[in-house]
Amino acid sequence: MDEKQPKKEKSLGKKIIIWVISLLIILIASLGLLGYHYFNESLKPLNPKDNNVKQIHIPLGATNKQIGSILQNNHIVKSGMVFDYYINSHNVTKFKAGYYQLKPSMSLGTIANKLEKGGSDEPIQASKKDVLIREGANIDQIAKEIDKNTDFSKNDFIKLMNDKSYINRLAKTYPKLLSSAVKAKDVRYVLEGYLYPATYEVKKNMPLTLLVEDMVAKTNQVLTPYYDKIKKEKLSVQEFMTLASLIEREGVDQKDREIMAGVLLNRVDIKMPLQSDVAVLYAIHRNDKVLTMSDLKTDSPYNLYTNAGFGPGPFDNPSVSAIKAVLNPRDRSKKYLYFVANTKTRKVYYAKTFDQHQANIGRYAVGNNDNQ
Q1: Residue 365 has what pLDDT?
Q2: In whole angstroms, what is the distance from residue 237 CA to residue 239 CA?
Q3: Are residues 303 and 181 both part of a single domain?
Q4: How many domains are there within the chain?
Q5: Which of 89, 97, 139, 193 qualifies as a FRET site for 164, CA 20 to 30 Å off?
Q6: How far is 359 from 314, CA to CA, in rounded Å?
Q7: From residue 152, how far is each of 57, 158, 198, 214 by CA, in Å?
């Protein structure tokens, strides 16, 4: 037996162990250097060149770790964990809840200082901007527009739309406009239909509540000359705005909008379901879709195929054109109860009976059709 062989094996084993240990030391040192570099980088502003303001909400009772996570998730700091270390090492602990205007270019010290001083009780605008509310947009669509073009978030806006105390205050300010809306049952949003489509100036330090009130005030201004006429027609404002919201999405030109308004009112007179595709789309939370038979059977108070009457309330926010169409319905004496629009020519065809309506669909309809 060769006595030198075990010695060689022991020597090789030692070399392997030394090699593995050396590799581990290098790996640990590298990780340490990377961690040290990451830590130092995290102490610096996330992006010194990014001065875009972001509105950040710090909820009541949030811990320092939770605040760090909020700042990291909103891309204000690189690391929430390092932010937590920073404030603990600097004995900064008395942070306050509220809404803050923060930038990725801010240092951790600047951010901590702002959080100590306190934010606003409600969302505010950081700089002057304009926001366009389009004709026929519903509240969910407006929320996206607000989120895209202002410092207010979609969640802030939807939260305000569900704030009963705020809505009740608006109803006291604009009783003729909103009294029937706040009494309506099963509504998705009480203010649906009452946020007038227009371009609004959003001023610096302007609260979201004031922006929404501007929209409501504009609707009240448009309707003020017509409240007596609406009452004379034995319609509540909620019912009236519901019809206008349907016409906004159904109508083509003003003449057709007025005839379509007459069709809807003729149906109301004989207690015939309004059977609106616009209503079904709202019920299924969609804005553009070829409806199926299953869609038409959707279990929702907003489905005007399965429910008679006006439903809970408006389906979008109508323009003055749609409002005037319901105020001045045309050709009611012709007793039209149906209409179908050729989506290629945009010409609308009207009928008194279902058989005539079916014939019009077969004769004139092209592609996806607006029909009633």
Answers
A1: 65
A2: 5
A3: no
A4: 3
A5: 97
A6: 31
A7: 11, 11, 18, 15
| Whether the Cβ atoms of residue 189 and residue 290 lie closer than 8 Å to each other | no
Residue 119 near residue 96, CB atoms below 8 Å: yes
pLDDT in tens, 273-284: 999 999 999 999
User: Which pLDDT band holds residue 341 (cuts at 50, 70, 90)?
Assistant: confident
Domain endpoint, select from 195, 222, 249: 222
Instruction: Give the pLDDT mean for 168-183.
Output: 97
Residue among 240, 253, 244 at smallest CA distance from 278: 244
pLDDT tens by residue, 46-79: 788 888 888 899 999 899 889 999 999 999 998 8
Same domain (yes/no): 241, 320: yes
Last residue of a domain, one of 92, 117, 142: 117
Domain carrying residue 111: 54-117
Instruction: Identify the pLDDT of residue 36.
Output: 44
144 and 236 co-located in one domain:
no
Residue 167 corresponds to which tokens in the numbers above?
Answer: 């809505």
Residue 348 lies in a domain: yes
